[in-house]
User: Fold this.
Amino acid sequence: MSEPLRVTGMVLSATPFGDYDKRVVLLTKECGKITAFARGARRQNSVLLAAANPFAFGAFVVYEGRSAYTLARAEISNYFTEVREDFEAACYGCYFMEVAEYYSRENLDGSEMLNLLYATLRALPKKQPDNELIRCIFEMRAMVLNGEYPYETANDASLQEATRYALAFVLGEPVGKLYSFTLTPEVFAEFRSVQDHFNRVHIDRKFKSLAILESMYAGLRPEGSLQTPENV
Assistant:
């Protein structure tokens, strides 16, 4: 057996495998996206029963195999219980994890995407900003991390000044400040339309969780007020 590897990460998805096992996808700081098998994780007395579930964040000890890892143990520091227990927040959270899984690659540094995902999930229970604005910000910043977002969009003279300011803010500010502003419905509509365009251009798949969200909240847009730069 290979030497144990300790990684920091989050469970993006988990599916049953065999009678008692789980196949989990982890986004890790050290190794990017990895697949691991949690043996016996579906047994009631398993030490991995709670850890081998989506949203679990912490330290994981894995052993590398030929085509996948084996998850041996975990020290979970955040289960994101507030997100999991709120149906709407959980739907958004599942979507964010799908997007993170889509963009992440194995054996590449996953720290920036992991930081973005963690900060985004922490923002959801606060209800400020609105979940749809959180979604838009996350999509935009994830695209930036993947090297796909055209920075010149923030200078597009056809957009409202407030929209350009919001775009520049999301593109350039540290992750910890991303979810510190709100937009008026009018500005958000334009902000959202810009991101929708790039989603159509750069993303070549449909996300199951997004389809659920769109069917639940079709036609709904967030309320809010544009905060001053000092409050952003």
Remarks:
- Helices lie at 81-84, 87-103, 111-123, 131-145, 161-172, 185-202, 208-216.
- Residues 221-232 have pLDDT under 50 and may be disordered.
